[in-house]
Each structure stands twice: as C-alpha cells, then as structure tokens.
Design brief:
Blueprint (H helix, E strand, L loop, with lengths): L2 E7 L14 E3 L4 H6 L5 E6 L8 E7 L2 E3 L1 H6 L14 H4 L5 E4 L2 E4 L13 H8 L4 E4 L1 E4 L5 E2 L2 H7 L8 E4 L4 H10 L18 E3 L4 E3 L1
Parallel strand pairs: 1-3
Antiparallel strand pairs: 1-11, 2-8, 3-4, 4-9, 4-10, 5-8, 6-7, 12-13
Length: 212
Amino acid sequence: MTNVYMYVVDRDFGFAPNPFHGLCTLATCKPVTRRVAKVGDWVVGMGGGRLKATGKCVFAMKVSQLETFDSYWTNPIYKDKKPLRNGSKKMIVGDNIYWKEDGEWRQVNSHHSFPDGSPNPHNIKNDTQTDAVLISDYFFYFGAGAVQIPKHILTGMGYVNGRHHRKFSIQQACSLVEFLERGFESNILHGDPYDFDSANARYSAENNKVTA
C-alpha cells in the first residue's frame, strides 16, 4: 500500500530535502520518516510558524529509490550531492555527507558539521540511526514559493501541523497529490529555499540551533 508521510519543515536551507541536480533527496534529519518510507511512497513537507507558511506545501517527493549512506557516497551518480563549502550555494548545502570507514561513521565538512568543519557527533548520531537515503526523480519543490493547499483538502485528510510526521494512505491524500500534479510542473524549483541566503550556516542537533 502506498503511504503519504507529511511533516512540518522547520528550516529550509536546501539541505533536507536537497532538491538540486535533478533529484530531490532526503539524506539527513527525519530518521523515523527515512526508516519507514518505501519506494512509491510520498513524503510531503508543509510550512510552519517559523517560515510563516502554515498550510503551504514546501515540497513533495515520490520515493523512487532507497540508498544506504555508503551506496549514496560511493555512487558517481550522486557526486554532485557532495558538499563543497567553497562552492555555490547549492553545492554548499550538499547532503551526501556520510560513509563508513573501519566500522565508524565519517562526516564530510557540511551543514551538519561544527563551524570549523570538524564532525559533529550529535548530528552523526541523529542522522545515522537510520541508514537510508530517500531519492526522488519525481518531485515538486516550492521552497520560498510554497503554495497554499486549499483548506478543504487538508481538512478532508484530517491533517494539522504537529510534531513528527503524520501518515496517510494514498486514498486519504489523493486530493493533495492531484492538486499538485494538475497545477504544477514537476522536477523543477519553483522557488529558492527559504533559508538559502544562510547556506553557509551550520546546524547542531545538540541544541537544535543554527550557527553562522
């Protein structure tokens, strides 16, 4: 059975999800969602209070493939997803940051590292509790151009913003998916990420804080 997982996007740097280079990927954060989502499922990110986007869709991705961190790291198809901290904004926020070496998780200099570029063990522990990367070659990414979802659609589903993801069957969420598919072009960026101007920032799960 196809499921739809919906959650509130608190921050939108273009890192989680990462909608660049022709694929939308969710490789960090949301370990529970990454653990349960299967190929064919949808993952939908809704706006919240911080983004002043309650009731708006930030992104929606249909999972087309699952990768482990190691396969994501080593596959040349995903090389452009590896971050370059001295590159363009979309290269800075690359989410291909983990691999195993000698049985230990390694973390490349990235949005989830400490400000000096050294590995952040708090993020490593949180991200790698689920060894799964969600890959989508069919997605809608709106970012700061987030689109208002008609109230009757969300009410009909029984969706309200809250902590953690909400799970719906495709039958329950069909009106939402149809609204996106009929109204918007897929696999393009309809807007830059909300927090794209802060692409150089670092995030730590230790205190849920972003630092410059």
